[in-house]
Amino acid sequence: MALTLTEMTAPDGFEQLVLAQDPDVGMRALICVHSTVLGPAAGGCRMWPYADDAAAIHDVTRLARGMTYKNAMADLGLGGGKSVIIGDARHDKTPALMQAFGRAVDTLAGRYYTAEDVGISPEDMAHAASQTAYAVGLSNASGDPSPWTAEGVFRCLKIGATHVFGTDDLTDRRVLVQGLGHVGMSLAEKLHAAGARLIVTDINQAALDDAQARLGASVCAPDQVFDQPMDIFAPCALGGVLTTKAAAQLQARLVCGAANNQLATDAVAQILADRQITYLPDYVVNAGGIISVASEIHAQPDTWRLERLIAIAGRVDQMLTRAKAEGRLIPDIADQMVHDMLTGRKAA
Ligand SMILES: NC(=O)c1ccc[n+]([C@@H]2O[C@H](COP(=O)([O-])OP(=O)(O)OC[C@H]3O[C@@H](n4cnc5c(N)ncnc54)[C@H](O)[C@@H]3O)[C@@H](O)[C@H]2O)c1
Questions:
Q1: With the C-alpha atoms ordered 74, 79, 84, 90, is the resulting torsion angle positive or negative?
Q2: What's the sign of the alpha-carbon dihedral 328, 248, 216, 239?
Q3: Residue 161 sits in the same domain as residue 301
Q4: Nearest ligand 1 atom to alpha carbon 180
Q5: Which of 228, 240, 242, 288 has its CA 20 to 30 A from that of 261?
Q6: Which stretch of DSSP H or E encloses residue 216?
Q7: Whole-number Å distance between alpha carbons of 63 and 76
Q8: pLDDT the model gives residue 345
Q9: Which of residues 104, 129, 154 is at a domain's end?
Q10: pLDDT exceeding 90 applies to what percent of the chain?
């Protein structure tokens, strides 16, 4: 077994950055622990063909920091971390590689819990879990996190609707769901059951046909989203969809969806606010998935997951009230709330 671990200089504000390599099985991975202030770090493992180590370090540190924020806001007793395996998931991934990755995670002795992310399936994670107790998100444990993510987004969307429209009654409210995948379709079903008028878009025709037939949705082309009249925009496909141009065009009054990193740049938050569009920060409303994974780490039942989803919606309510009272951007309030949790200060 040729596993080697090299401690790298972690960027300022980060606790640990480790390069793990096992040339025998072609495994080269970075594990980043951003913070263990609130508990052991947790965050998924991504496999991606990064151009070089610098690109991988940039991604793993950015993602690890994001997990600190997401886990803190969801009150999970977990810190933030992330790992990336450098390689092409379609060609380079083998059980032996995933086992070597599992052994690398094990050397951190519980400072970091890993789970699936882009390029890594529950089956891959099972290979890692054969070597460590710190690999979670397994299909025989907490299961698919997507329904929990959808439920969390739905509950937050209703809180947002109360603030924006004065009621959480979604009857006839026009909601555009972008991306009908694991989360988007489940969210669309909930919205339909709540009486919303659905507009859907996807690049997958079968998903569109399904939503039309079962949920009475109308379909819009992927490149027409920002020309579309709507009340609520629910991005559930890709990150970065709200560019400066899109934010200037968007016809919704509320944005609440599962996609990570919806704002292409920080400046977009101000554009949305100037246009009286209420944006609910993605890392807050999409925490249902990590809540589900955390229930596996802490060996907690469904009631624990539900309590945390309800609490997330409560925090969204709180941040909307504060943003209005203090005349500040909602994402700034969210970040401030996390900062206060990390430094042990109560929100003002
Ligand atoms: N699954 C979870 O529990 C979870 C948790 C937190 C965040 N997220 C984020 O939510 C988003 C959706 O996750 P998912 O698990 O449902 O993914 P998924 O891959 O199951 O679904 C994504 C859907 O978006 C569609 N899509 C891709 N490009 C598109 C485009 N240009 N326009 C419209 N649709 C497009 C795909 O065809 C697919 O149906 C992702 O950004 C993911 O990172 C997911």
A1: negative
A2: negative
A3: yes
A4: 39
A5: 228
A6: none
A7: 17
A8: 62
A9: 129
A10: 91
Could you identify the residue written with the tokens 């969801």?
Answer: 74
Q: Which two tokens stand for residue 157?
A: 């969307």
What's the confidence (pLDDT) of residue 137? 83
Same domain, yes or no: 199 and 319 = yes
Site to substitute for ligand 1 among 70, 71, 203, most atoms within 8 A of C-beta? 203
Q: What is the pLDDT of residues 9-30, one digit of tens each?
A: 999 999 999 999 999 999 999 9
Q: Are residues 107 and 151 in the same domain?
A: no
pTM comes to 0.91
Task: Examine the pLDDT at 240 and tell me if it is beyond 80.
Answer: yes
Residue at 23 is within a domain = yes
Look up residue 346 and give its two tokens. Answer: 């109560």
Write out the H or E segment, with its range, that includes residue 35. strand 27-35
Torsion sign across C-alpha atoms 185, 189, 190, 195: positive
Mean local confidence (pLDDT), 138-149: 84
CA of 184 to the centre of ligand 1 (A): 7
Cβ of residue 262 lying under 6 Å from some atom of ligand 1: no
Q: Is 82 a catalytic residue?
A: yes
Asked if residue 18 lies in contact with residue 39, where contact means CB atoms within 8 angstroms, the answer is no
Q: What is the pLDDT of residue 202?
A: 97
pLDDT computed for residue 196 by the predictor: 98
**Exposure pattern of 315-336 as b/e (b: 16+ CB <10 Å)?**
bbeebbebbeeeeebbbbbbbb
DSSP per residue, 7-31? EE-PPTT--EEEEEEEGGGTEEEEE
Same domain, 156 and 275: yes
Is 139 part of any domain?
Answer: no
**pLDDT at site 117:** 87
With the C-alpha atoms ordered 87, 93, 97, 99, is the resulting torsion angle positive or negative?
positive
Residue-range definition of the domain harbouring residue 270: 146-342
